[in-house]
Specification:
Low-confidence stretches: 85-91
Distance between the termini: 34 Å
Radius of gyration: 23 Å
Order of helices and strands: HEEEHEHEHEEEEEHEEHEHEHHH
Strand content: 25-35%
Mean pLDDT: 90
Length: about 325
């Protein structure tokens, strides 16, 4: 379950109850702030909370303001500023302004359906556009555009201006394909699932690739590696890891994925392993520029040793690539 999926699922569940609740979403931000561009939080008056919009004083204030919007029954924009001087006094290296969009969670069958459809779309990696009107004087006005389907609550809001609607583009969840279900591969899958990747794990051994052993994976495929690779279609939001039990299998993975559209291709192993496999692949006709984009060894250089530590280092690298951060020099 991805982070965004769990938030919309929580909204769906709250819409089916009579608990006062709301959604707070980062709409825009300026400066250096301790929150992601797509940060979101669901809060309920009974104290339950899902997600975060930055923590600290901002989150406490946002919670109070979101619940106030829920009680008033109308959406609102609010701004929070972390003063640079205050940040310096507190020893923080940040300062700036964030605008939050606050949306009451209305208790109705229509909202249950809409929130549930958004959650399902995220889980199934289908892009979603969510548009919410600011004027709820005649009741909630919201639309979710999921593929060719439109789910409307109230009168469908039109995108006249940012002053009358809040628009949110929910892109597909990035997919991580772990090819090889050994100890390290499984730990990478576990950590990646926890930070919002759609995780696919494949192995040619059913005793390694199964739901009992990998309950956190979104998809598990038991298939010969070559057959799996023959059917694999990669896009720019895909990440591929070769974590098989042997050089020959890893070489098959790199041969089939190095020149693909995947955003990231990496192989578990040493620099010596890289030299041996890459030399053989180049002799077999794999372009050198395609091989040069493959990351080996994988992971941030934190001295990781155990499967669990290696998983943290690898997923940290995947997050850096996903967020577009620069590589440390």
């Amino acid at each position: 379950m991805s982070n965004q999926h769990s938030l919309w699922l929580a909204a769906q569940q709250l819409a089916a109850t009579d608990v006062i609740a709301a959604i707070a979403t980062v709409s825009r931000q300026r400066g250096s702030l301790p929150m992601a561009q797509d940060a979101k939080m669901v809060v309920a008056e009974d104290g339950r909370r899902w997600g975060t919009v930055g923590g600290g004083c901002t989150e406490a204030d946002a919670t109070e303001q979101a619940l106030k919007a829920a009680k008033e029954g109308k959406p609102a924009f609010v701004q929070h500023t972390l003063n640079a001087d205050l940040a310096g006094d507190l020893g923080l290296s940040c300062g700036g302004t964030v605008e939050l969009f606050l949306e009451p969670i209305v208790h109705s069958a229509e909202m249950v359906r809409l929130y549930g459809a958004i959650a399902d779309a995220i889980e199934n990696r289908v892009p979603v556009t969510v548009r919410t009107a600011l004027d709820w004087s005649a009741g909630p006005s919201k639309i979710a555009i999921i593929g060719d389907e439109e789910i409307v609550v109230g009168s469908a809001p039109t995108h006249d201006s940012p002053l009358t609607t809040h628009d949110e583009e929910l892109t597909r969840t990035p997919r991580l394909i772990v090819i090889g279900a050994g100890h390290v591969g499984i730990e990478i899958a576990r950590v990646a699932a926890g930070v919002g990747f759609h995780v696919v794990v494949t192995d040619d051994r059913a005793e390694f690739a199964n739901a009992d052993r990998i309950p956190f994976a979104h998809e598990i495929v038991v298939k010969d590696f070559r057959a799996f690779l023959d059917e694999l279609r990669l896009d720019e939001d895909d990440y591929v890891l070769a974590t098989t039990r042997g050089h020959a299998f890893d070489a098959q993975v790199i041969e089939r994925t190095a020149a693909s559209s995947a955003r990231y291709v990496g192989m578990l192993g040493s620099r010596r392993k890289k030299e041996v496999i890459f030399k053989a692949l180049e002799q077999a006709g794999v372009p050198r520029d395609a091989l040069d984009r493959v990351k080996v060894p994988i992971g941030e250089p934190i001295g990781a040793d155990t499967p669990e530590e290696i998983a943290v280092s690898v997923v940290a690298e995947l997050i850096r690539v996903r967020r577009g951060a620069r590589e440390a020099q």
